[in-house]
């Protein structure tokens, strides 16, 4: 039952993402047909820089419906079930997660929180507990199968003993608008450490692939200029009343 670490890989994204957003937005204000606008944009008419500047201004203005036409699909592994339970709360997205019903938890991987991993005593207790859970899981599966309850029917009941630390793998697809919201919430210092690490890793990829949309993305305080968390603020930005007082 070895420890495991976060891995994020971009599987795919909407082809010609910049041109797609540009055409979608231009269609709102133009008598031309979107296919022609799109075809011209792919050819570099107007230039890529002008398209990027246009899209940046659109995002900054809050006209975000047009960026819903572009999506990113990530393969994520090395995360805990504790994280995935938070992740799937972001409802405008598609998820395909490794099943604990169909995939037997044999020598399951797990995630150790940093506060525990840095403490030798706590880490030893944690790892011992993971081994005990694995042993108990294996015993339950074995005894269920001996009673004629086999395969996924045994796994689906034995999994009730598995911990939140248990590693999972998941494929996630989000459109750009959902990603901006995800980053605004989960890149925040108040977000749980594991999902914050995931969000920051995904954000780095998105900034590289589509800077016109994601150059200014991140925790909500970055876009607002102030922290809306009140007394829970990390101090990275001034509070709203302090920010407004300076205006």
Automatic annotation (TrEMBL):
- List positions binding dUMP: 86-89, 97-101, 159, 186
Q: Name one GO biological process term.
A: methylation
Q: Which PROSITE patterns match?
A: THYX
Task: Give the cofactor note text.
Answer: Binds 4 FAD per tetramer. Each FAD binding site is formed by three monomers.
Source organism superkingdom: Bacteria
Q: Catalyses which reaction?
A: dUMP + (6R)-5,10-methylene-5,6,7,8-tetrahydrofolate + NADPH + H(+) = dTMP + (6S)-5,6,7,8-tetrahydrofolate + NADP(+)
Binding positions (FAD): 65, 89-91, 97, 175-177, 181
Alphabetical keyword list: FAD, Flavoprotein, Methyltransferase, NADP, Nucleotide biosynthesis, Transferase
Record function comment: Catalyzes the reductive methylation of 2'-deoxyuridine-5'-monophosphate (dUMP) to 2'-deoxythymidine-5'-monophosphate (dTMP) while utilizing 5,10-methylenetetrahydrofolate (mTHF) as the methyl donor, and NADPH and FADH(2) as the reductant.
Give the protein's recorded name.
Answer: Flavin-dependent thymidylate synthase
């Amino acid at each position: 039952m070895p420890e495991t670490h976060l891995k994020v890989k971009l599987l795919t994204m909407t082809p010609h993402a910049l041109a797609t957003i540009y055409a979608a937005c231009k269609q709102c204000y133009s008598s031309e047909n979107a296919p022609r606008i799109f075809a011209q944009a792919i050819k570099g008419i107007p230039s890529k820089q002008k398209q990027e500047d246009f899209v940046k201004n659109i995002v900054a203005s809050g006209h975000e419906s047009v960026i819903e036409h572009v999506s990113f699909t990530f393969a994520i592994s090395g995360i805990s079930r504790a994280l995935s339970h938070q992740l799937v709360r972001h409802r405008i997205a598609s998820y395909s997660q490794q099943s604990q019903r169909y995939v037997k938890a044999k020598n399951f991987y797990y995630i150790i929180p940093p506060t525990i991993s840095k403490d030798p005593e706590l880490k030893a207790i944690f790892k011992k507990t993971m081994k005990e859970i694995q042993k108990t899981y294996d015993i339950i599966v074995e005894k269920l199968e001996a009673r004629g309850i086999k395969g996924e029917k045994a796994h689906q009941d034995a999994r009730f003993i598995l911990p939140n630390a248990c590693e999972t793998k998941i494929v996630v697809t989000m459109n750009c608008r959902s990603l901006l919201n995800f980053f605004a919430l989960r890149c925040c210092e108040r977000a749980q450490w594991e999902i914050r690490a995931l969000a920051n890793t995904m954000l780095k990829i998105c900034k590289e692939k589509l800077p016109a949309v994601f150059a200014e993305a991140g925790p909500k305080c970055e876009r607002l200029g102030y922290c809306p968390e009140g007394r829970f603020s990390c101090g990275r930005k001034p509070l709203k009343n302090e920010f407004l007082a300076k205006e």
